[in-house]
Design goal:
The complex is a heterodimer of chains A (about 280) and B (about 325). By secondary structure, chain A is an all-alpha fold. Chain A is about 75% helix and about 0% strand. Chain A is built from eleven helices and no strands. In chain A, helix 5 packs antiparallel against helix 8. Chain B has 13 helices and no strands. Classes of the chains: A mainly alpha (about 280), B mainly alpha (about 325).
């Protein structure tokens, strides 16, 4: 009897230690990656990164102005496409579809899209936009990125609108407000922190995406604001410069990684903070 | 769900005394808004099919040239002779993801149980947050870190791996080779780190919904934490846990940038895990912009079609299994 007990105790203690070790491993890698990005990134930071365009390789010059502006334009257009569609689709699910079979099918398909590998979406944008147009373009990149962010916004909008109590809605309907006024002025307003969280998470997800841009926006050594042409962007610059043999390009890749990680982490933390507010408000 | 099922979508009907023009204006606003919502929902629901159809359509040339079975089993990938076969990349994709699962699933399980059952209250939130931040780091940064920081460290460990595992009969051949730091095993390890947040957060979420009556009764009978985790929580949440693992597997199979940096990009199939290899996503990322002929591009897209067929199945099962627990919960309540 005591031997059985002792064995159970040993298994328990060993498993607890192993689980703590597993957690330490996970946290350790997070800090290792962030520390490396900090260390290499800060040494590559230079003011001229923001004022000059891509310099020739193998020199002492730095410059990513074209890529930063290109990335911002890509993200802006992606949000311009993705946010309205995601918001309206989520609204349809929560306000018109409810628990109907159709709505549940849409939710199911959306959940599958939620975990779609970005490379597949990139291939889709290539087939749907690049191939018919005949050349790579920033527009195709934005289409790919927006498809990646839509499922996230759909899901959070749906969930957050479902949390809004029926009483406010009924009160608005009783006042004679039509459905669309109830939705835009009452339920959207009540759920705005949650919906904004979804948009921020979606933005965080796409801001470091590289694979879909390789098939769509590609890259550009020069400054361009033409959405119908290839455009320089940070993720592809990181990919190409990191694998180049030139020191100044490699340093720029690290600096760009550092800024991307900083941007994404800040977005994630802000989103988390908003989400905390939603849960408290409940 | 209670209380939120108010039927807003149904026309609330203006009172008959109201002026007609106003009623019409409201009505058109309503129908416009409804139409926009329906349109958006249709877009969200059909992109999945659009993706499959567009990719299948663009790979038609290669399907026509090499057939299905011929493409799947051929190891010849030669742009010069315009012969293309998917076999090395399929193997590379499956093996690197398998390594990621072997390493990542137990660690994810440990993290989830640690957060739910073992950790003191004050440490739970920061630890859970830190693990989730792993998912926020862009995959290209994993790749850069893997190539520049991790691979040199790992190449120091590889002789030790070769010496200790390389002599085991049967599996020894898997661990023999020059210590290069990059290769299949490195890719698997980086993938394992990347899937940790996805698998562990699903596990954590479903472990939390296990009714406390179940858990408390097991503890009251004198069960240890391990026994509660293994014999009570895990069986109760089995389908969702498997779903979470599939979700992580789907991520690993389709992961592109991180793998491209560290796998070494070789079209050869090697018995050793320490040797360079290639996956479907990595060959796409490397060769797509350089593909010059129509057949070359079409063959690359064909590879993408194979990938989509595999990941779609995995993701379909994942979502199905995770939802299964939700329904069970609903029935129990």
């Amino acid at each position: 009897m005591t031997r059985v007990l002792a064995r159970r105790r040993i298994i328990d203690v060993v498993s607890k230690i192993l689980m703590a070790v597993a957690t330490v491993i996970g946290v350790f890698f997070l800090f290792w990656i962030i520390w490396a990005t900090l260390k290499f990134g800060i040494s590559g930071l230079h003011w001229s990164l923001f004022t000059n365009d891509t310099p020739p390789p193998g020199t002492n010059q730095f410059g990513l102005r074209n890529a930063f502006i290109g990335s911002l334009l890509l993200l802006a257009l992606s949000m311009g496409i993705g946010v309205p569609i995601g918001l309206m689709a989520g609204t349809w699910l929560a306000e018109y579809g409810f628990r109907s079979r159709t709505a549940d099918t849409v939710r199911f398909l959306n959940d599958i899209m939620l975990s779609a590998p970005s490379i597949e979406i990139g291939l889709f944008a290539y087939a749907a936009v690049v191939a018919p147009m005949g050349h790579f373009s920033a527009l195709a990149g934005s289409v790919a990125l927006s498809i990646l962010m839509i499922p996230i916004i759909v899901r959070t909008t749906d969930e957050m609108l479902s949390l809004v109590g029926g009483d406010v809605r009924e009160a608005a309907i009783a006042l004679g407000a039509p459905a669309w006024v109830v939705i835009t002025k009452v339920t959207w307003k009540a759920a705005r922190a949650g919906i904004l969280t979804g948009v921020l998470i979606g933005l965080a997800r796409i801001s470091g995406e590289t694979a879909p841009l390789l098939f769509t926006a590609l890259n550009n050594q020069y400054f361009s604001a033409n959405m119908l042409r290839p455009m320089a962007n940070i993720p592809v610059v990181i990919f190409q410069f990191a694998l180049s043999p030139y020191t100044n390009w490699q340093q720029m890749a690290w600096a760009a990684s550092f800024i991307t990680v900083l941007f994404v982490l800040v977005l994630s933390l802000v989103a988390r903070w908003f989400l905390g507010k939603v849960q408290v408000a409940k | 769900m209670n209380g939120s099922d108010v039927v807003v979508g149904v026309d609330t009907g203006p009172a008959s005394e109201e002026p007609r023009a106003a009623a019409k204006a409201w009505l058109s606003g309503d129908s416009l808004f409804h139409a926009a919502a329906v349109f958006a929902a249709v877009v969200a629901a059909t992109t999945l099919f659009g993706t499959v159809i567009a990719i299948a359509y663009d790979s038609r040339l290669s399907i026509h040239t090499f057939g299905i079975w011929g493409f799947l089993k051929s190891s010849e990938w030669n742009p010069v002779t315009q012969t293309f076969g998917a076999f090395p990349f399929i193997i590379g994709t499956l093996v690197s993801s398998a390594i990621a699962m072997v390493l990542g699933v137990p660690v994810s399980f440990g993290i989830a149980v640690f957060i739910v059952e073992i950790a003191p209250e004050w440490i739970k939130r920061p630890v859970a947050g830190a693990i989730e931040l792993l998912a926020a780091i862009p995959s290209i940064v994993y790749g850069l870190w893997g190539l520049v920081v991790f691979a040199p460290v790992f190449s120091q460990m590889e002789p030790w791996i070769s010496n200790s595992f390389g002599k085991i009969p049967g599996i020894g051949a898997l661990f023999q080779g020059p210590p290069m730091g990059i290769g299949m095993l490195t890719a698997g390890i980086v993938l394992a780190i990347m899937v940790l947040p996805y698998i562990s957060s699903i596990m954590r979420d479903v472990f939390m919904v296990v009714p406390s009556s179940l858990r408390e009764s097991a503890y009251a009978l004198g069960a240890t934490t391990w026994e509660v985790a293994w014999d009570v929580i895990l069986p109760y949440t089995r389908s969702a846990v498997i779903g979470g693992i599939f979700l992580g597997l789907g991520r690993a199979l389709g992961e592109t940038m991180a793998v491209t940096f560290v796998i070494g990009n070789s079209n050869m199939i090697s018995t050793s895990l320490l040797m360079p290899s290639a996956t479907i996503p990595s060959v796409l990322a490397n060769e797509f912009t350089e593909a010059t002929s129509k057949l070359y591009v079409s063959s690359l897209i064909y590879l993408g079609l194979i990938l989509i067929a595999v990941t779609l199945t995995v993701r379909f099962l994942a979502v199905l299994l995770i939802r299964h627990l939700g329904r069970k919960e609903g029935a129990a309540a």
